[in-house]
Design a protein that fits this description.
13 strands, about 5% helix, globular
Amino acid sequence: MYNSSGNCCLRSSAFIDASMFANSPPIKNFCRVLNFILNPSNGVITSVGAVIDARGLTNMTMTCSASPWAGITSPPPSTILLPVGTIGTSATWSLPANTRLIGAGDNISPSTLSSGTIIRAVGASVSPLIQLGSSSLCSLPCTGISVENLTLDGQGQAINGIVNQNATTNTFVDHVGLYQILGTGLYISGQ
């Protein structure tokens, strides 16, 4: 990309192709790559935020042992585009303020389950799968959080899908399939 003085070629802080950073963390893991990009101290994303296209991150381990925001104290605003396929997680994904998580579809019939984005629970200790806002990631109440166009798969366990106890204005869930979640699919309380 060219800057205003005509110098070529600079990276865009507005749109980040996550596949370009697939080898940046020492272990090729989907959530570790996102964590590397989302951590402002690594110099990839600015405090203004960006759209992070993670749809090309498919040639790596798709099981996460930590949230993409783990250890980041001031996460910048972001829109994360998730790939088609299954992302396993053994940790709750706590989404900070001004974060949009957008999948590639919410198909939940068993025959088409593999044609969209699935976030699948790995183990019974991950509950909820997604938490909208938390006191460690944003000053309460958190605003501007969304989860869209994906399926949450509880693997037939008594876990919760999405819990919102901290997020308010401009926060929503849209086209999210809830599959084999034996706890509460969407829990809203507090503010």
